[in-house]
Amino acid sequence: MTWLYWIVGLGLGFVSASALALYSYGRFARRSRGAPSHALPVAEADTALDRLIAPLHAEHPGQTGVSLVLDNAEAFAQRVLSLRAAGRSLDVMTYIWRDDTGGRLIAAEVLAAADRGVRVRLLLDDVNTHGLDPKFVALDKHPGIEVRLFNPIRARRSTIGRGLEILLGLVRYNRRMHCKLWLADGRLAITGGRNIGTVYLARDPGPELRSPASRDADLLMLGALAEEAAEIFDRYWNSGIALPMRALWPRATVSLGRLRERLRREATGAQGAAMLAGLEGASILPDPARLHWTAGARLLADPPEKALGHGREHWLPQRLAEAMGSTRTSLRLVTPYFVPGREGLAALVALARRGVRVQIVTNALAATNHTVVHGAYRRYRRPLLAAGAAVHEFAPGGGGSGPGAPAGRPLSAPGLADSMAASVAGGPRPQEMLHAKLLVADAALCFVGSFNFDLRSAFLNTEMGVACTDPHLVAEVLAEIERLAAPEAAWRLHLDGRVLRWEGAVRGPALPVIRDPEASAVRRGTSWVIGHLPIHSQL
Asked: How far apart (Å, rounded) are the C-alpha atoms in residues 10 and 12?
């Protein structure tokens, strides 16, 4: 029985160490909170953005102008050009800010804006910041820029120390800020699925591509919801869960000048020059036909306290569940990661069985960047299909309108020619991963945001997005879902007795297969093993 005493003793020791670590971190966080700050008030004509947007807002008092942004290059242009036109403030929340060409180009624009007097507040989730501290410490040294990290680790210099702190504080550190928000001058706001980096902001990520290019969706907002976005940002910024970068690196000696030089070199490289060249002829605002003014849009956001497990009645999933539960004719979901859990599965099955058309589009195993999450998702396919739901898996070289092509806009001539040549030659299509998060209920309400339809987004991460009843926007979102689910873009799953089959014309004739298409044996094996582990609540 000695071994039992050892196990009990080690368990008690770990619990005690964890409790002490959490207590110590709480004291540190209370001492390290930065001074509160708030969004700067808008003006009628102080800045170029004021002069561009204020007249439009005046024509539509109390309303919000919304525009669906599917094209990666357009998303990049809107961020860069809105920042260049800003003269007052920039507030950014993001889950990932990659240290690649796209991320460095945005950082260079942030520095340039701060140099001319724009106040910049950057709120980053800490889980993807490890290893990039010097860059953000350098930005934080600029008098016009402040960087804060959401729910950060104290141990910044030691990988071992960081790992130990995560282990002892896993209950805390497992909760992340997954929101994305770009807010320029309090006038123009962008939210949705895109992080900051090349794969999210370039049509062709080129040689930097370490993971599939992002097929994504954002929503640009002017007017009423931009004002609400400023309030949400302030709530996160001043929550006490977000700590100043300078409190974590009190004696940092990183050079802002070196960062400037590095960013200048990036802009003259092949990738950077190509992305910047794409700004020629671009505009901050979309074509008027794609900008819809409406009073039927709501900005939904989890409170920052969700990261502490508090205030569940105000969490975003509760409001989405209400919309999904009241569906009468059709419910269509697009999500890169789909792990609905028992309750979510039961709700979807119940809808399908009462005659609601339920359609789900998610990544195929060959396309996903999270094999582990796919392993959990695979257990939900059969019961959904048995209930009559339609399940589509987006292919890594899926067709449709091309990577992030705007709704209703065809490929450019060179892109179309390249696509046709690759098809004739039998060559591979560009690798692409679905990253958009979309919902349409009864063809009357749509949602665009950061919320993955999985248990992590539901219970662990903070999320945000926009629900809207404007018929024009709903139609555009619905059209994108149709493109993503089309046979040339995705495989459709079927049950043939007990056999699961994939059908579609992604690679030619619609021949059915009975295992995850184009996925390696290692991926299939890993997915199968993960699917049998009790870890779905963490995915």
From this structure: 5
Catalytic residue among 370, 418, 442, 472: 442
Residues 69-84 have pLDDT tens digits of: 999 999 999 999 999 9
Q: Is 204 a catalytic residue?
A: no
Q: Which of 57, 392, 437, 536 is catalytic?
A: 437
Residue written as tokens 């599917």?
A: 70
What is the maximum alpha-carbon separation in the chain? 79
Torsions phi, psi of 233, nearest 5? -60, -45
Active-site annotation holder among 100, 140, 185, 516: 185
Cα–Cα dist 17/29, whole Å:
18
Q: Copy the structure tokens of residue 312.
A: 């569940």
Using one digit for the tens of pLDDT, what is the confidence trace for 228-252?
999 999 999 999 999 999 999 888 8
- Using only C-alpha atoms, the chain has a radius of gyration, in whole angstroms, of 23
Give the single-character DSSP code of 186. Answer: T
Does the annotation count 115 as an active-site position? no
Does pLDDT of 516 surpass 60? Answer: yes
437 catalytic, yes or no? yes
Contact 336, 434 (CB under 8 A): yes
- For residues 403, 408, 410 and 411, what is the CA-based torsion angle, rounded to 10 degrees? -20
Residue 454: active-site member: no
| Residue range 287-293: mean pLDDT, rounded | 95
Single pTM value for the model = 0.90
- Identify the active-site residue in 57, 135, 141, 180: 180
135 is catalytic: no
Rounded CA separation 463/452 (Å): 9
Catalytic residue among 141, 178, 292, 536: 178
